[in-house]
TrEMBL record:
<feature type="binding site">
    <location>
        <position position="366"/>
    </location>
    <ligand>
        <name>substrate</name>
    </ligand>
</feature>
<dbReference type="Pfam" id="PF00208">
    <property type="entry name" value="ELFV_dehydrog"/>
</dbReference>
<feature type="binding site">
    <location>
        <position position="228"/>
    </location>
    <ligand>
        <name>NAD(+)</name>
    </ligand>
</feature>
<dbReference type="Pfam" id="PF02812">
    <property type="entry name" value="ELFV_dehydrog_N"/>
</dbReference>
<dbReference type="GO" id="GO:0005829">
    <property type="term" value="C:cytosol"/>
</dbReference>
<dbReference type="InterPro" id="IPR033922">
    <property type="entry name" value="NAD_bind_Glu_DH"/>
</dbReference>
<protein>
    <recommendedName>
        <fullName>Glutamate dehydrogenase</fullName>
    </recommendedName>
</protein>
<feature type="binding site">
    <location>
        <position position="153"/>
    </location>
    <ligand>
        <name>substrate</name>
    </ligand>
</feature>
<dbReference type="GO" id="GO:0006537">
    <property type="term" value="P:glutamate biosynthetic process"/>
</dbReference>
<dbReference type="InterPro" id="IPR006096">
    <property type="entry name" value="Glu/Leu/Phe/Val/Trp_DH_C"/>
</dbReference>
<feature type="binding site">
    <location>
        <position position="99"/>
    </location>
    <ligand>
        <name>substrate</name>
    </ligand>
</feature>
<keyword id="KW-0560">Oxidoreductase</keyword>
<feature type="domain" description="Glutamate/phenylalanine/leucine/valine/L-tryptophan dehydrogenase C-terminal">
    <location>
        <begin position="190"/>
        <end position="432"/>
    </location>
</feature>
<dbReference type="InterPro" id="IPR046346">
    <property type="entry name" value="Aminoacid_DH-like_N_sf"/>
</dbReference>
<keyword id="KW-0520">NAD</keyword>
<keyword id="KW-0547">Nucleotide-binding</keyword>
<dbReference type="InterPro" id="IPR006097">
    <property type="entry name" value="Glu/Leu/Phe/Val/Trp_DH_dimer"/>
</dbReference>
Length: 434
């Protein structure tokens, strides 16, 4: 906190991890050697750079961009790029720190990174988005590589933006490998990558409920967000018999009292992915209630899946969820629950999974994309899905191994943090002080 006084999100992420590691560190003092903790909370490299680009009127625009390479201890740095006006160094440092543990949990050899810009793709033309992506790559290309740092998408960076950045990477590096994951199928992408985070989240929730001997069929599900993660979480939850009651965006919540059906969900996906519109456009539709400026958390349901952004679910939301009978909260987004909300879930004894465990399916499938690229092979849909499912089961097993309490319930925060930490820490100790 003394070193980074103006970085609240980064401090929050570090505190959450360190608090849950403390009992483990007390019992395993070997992990305090070589300044390990001090090194682990300091990114290996943080790049900040200017992105100057021309808008459609020929005016010069200037944005700020970053890449945080947090740790390459177990493999090349790996993590998404985020384009959103709220992006700053604190948010990217927290995301890169979390990514380091998450990537370790996937069982694949990937270090942690994150990057992005305060550029807002909303309201920009196709050509403006392309020019911005190309301008950003003029700087970023020299810092990334298949064995150095492998970026991907995140909020505001989908297939379109990855395509423009990967295309420029190819041009500037004169190499066929575009380095990015989340690529289109036509140029080295993996089947199932778009679905992976949302599907993986539901596979993880099934494991949690199964392990706790809870029924899943017919459960009411609240989902926030209406982007990549939220959409595929909704599709898989419905496929598995859940009743999805909500989706949301930064304007408000779309509430389907009897649950979304396939047609309604397809309409939302078209609205968001093709027309890039707002959920408020469906406000007059008789199938929904549109709750302007509200999040979904006041609606009674058994399962809550925050899939939008950090700190979108606070202590009061958590108390309301618990009061309304929620049994399981699993994070699709990164750090969507505040520290107070997590405390409320833990004290109430409901099942709670932090994003680094429950949303790791996306980066795991990115790891599978890297493997396919290296092999110059493409696996089938079923093959990638089976590997994703197996990885989510393995992450759940790691949480059980490291997070089982005396009463046999699972502390998923502790389980995920300790399992991720041990892998990274062992690699750092073996490689010496560097
Ligand atoms: P998208 O950009 O596809 O969607 C983000 C959604 O969240 C949109 O509906 C957006 O609303 C909403 N949102 C964004 N910011 C806010 C805000 N401040 N308040 C309310 N709603 C907001 O992103 P993704 O679905 O890819 O990512 C969502 C979360 O999941 C992020 O935390 C990301 O880091 C995490 N994640 C994503 C992975 C992936 O594979 N995509 C992998 C692992 C984690 P609007 O449309 O109004 O902007």
């Amino acid at each position: 906190a003394r070193r980074d006084p103006h970085q609240p999100e980064f401090q929050q992420a570090v505190r959450e991890v360190m608090e849950s590691l403390w009992p483990f560190l007390d019992q395993n003092p070997q992990y305090r050697r070589q300044g390990l903790l001090e090194r682990l909370v300091e990114p290996e490299r943080l790049l900040q750079f200017r992105v100057a680009w021309l808008d459609d009127r020929g005016q010069t625009r200037v944005n700020r961009a970053w890449r945080v390479q947090h740790s390459a201890a177990i493999g090349p740095c790996k993590g998404g790029m985020r384009f959103h006006p709220s992006v700053n160094a604190s948010i990217l440092k927290f995301l890169a720190f979390e990514q380091t543990f998450k990537n370790a949990l996937t069982t694949l050899p990937m270090g942690g990174a994150k990057g992005g810009s305060d550029f807002d793709p909303k309201g920009k033309s196709e050509t403006e988005v392309m020019r911005f992506c190309q301008a950003l790559m003029f700087e970023l290309y020299r810092h990334i590589g298949a064995d150095t740092d492998v970026p991907a998408g995140d909020i505001g960076v989908g297939a379109r933006e990855v395509g423009y950045m990967a295309g420029m990477m190819k041009k500037l590096s004169n190499q066929a490998a575009c380095v990015f994951t989340g690529k289109g199928l036509a140029y080295g992408g993996s089947l199932m990558r778009p679905e992976a985070t949302g599907f993986g989240l539901i596979y993880f929730v099934e494991q949690m409920l199964h392990y706790a001997r809870r029924e899943t069929h017919g459960a009411r599900v609240l989902i926030s967000g209406a982007g990549n993660v939220a959409q595929f979480a909704a599709i898989k939850a419905m496929e598995r018999g859940g009743r999805v009651l909500t989706l949301s965006d930064s304007g408000g919540t779309l509430y389907a009292r009897d649950g979304f059906d396939e047609d309604a969900l397809a309409e939302v996906c078209t609205l968001k992915n093709v027309r890039r519109g707002r959920l408020s456009e469906l406000a007059g539709d008789a199938r929904f209630e549109y709750l302007e400026g509200r999040s979904p958390w006041h609606i009674p349901a058994e399962i809550a899946l925050p899939c939008a952004t950090q700190n979108e679910l606070d202590g009061n939301d958590a108390r309301t969820l618990v009061h309304n009978g929620a049994v399981c909260v699993a994070e699709g987004a990164n750090m969507p629950s505040t520290l107070e909300a997590v405390e409320v879930f833990q004290q109430a004894g409901i099942l709670y999974a932090p994003g680094k465990a429950s949303n790791a399916g996306g980066v795991a499938t990115s790891g599978l994309e890297m493997s396919q690229n290296a092999l110059r092979l493409s696996w089938t849909h079923a093959e990638v899905d089976a590997r994703l499912h197996a990885i989510m089961m393995e992450i759940h097993a790691l949480c059980v191994r490291h997070g089982t309490r005396a009463d046999r319930s699972i502390n998923y925060v502790q389980g995920a943090n300790v399992a991720g930490f041990v892998k990274v820490a062992d690699a750092m100790l073996a490689q010496g002080v560097c």
